[in-house]
Task: structure prediction
Amino acid sequence: MSDEIESARIQVFGADPRHAELEAKELREVLNRLDGAEVRFAPPEAPRATEGAKGPALLTPEVVLILTTGTFALARTAIKAWVEVRKSRKVRVVHSDGTVTEFQGGVSGREVNALRDGQGNRTETGPGDTR
Result:
């Protein structure tokens, strides 16, 4: 087993800056439960000067977390499971070596509830059912 510590930037996207922040806080809580993982918010980047801008730069619907861990495979599994719960979730992981991994949600909340309730994609009909 390797004693190397890996650090990665995790970009969490949302519909707007507030949504992205809420999603990032939730993901941070999930990742902080992993043994040996440390997750914190990245310091905000200096606003870029935009020609003709009258105020601070527009906020982007993205929040960046910094993950430091000894076993990124476990963190990757946790991120993937967290993202897949909602179609609206999107995360980009930028590893220290420059490689990028993206995760996009694939199951809606309604679909998860249906699966949890055992309804799934049933197409059978019972006595008296009409379609």
Summary: Residues 122-127 have pLDDT under 50 and may be disordered. The first helix runs from residue 17 to 32.
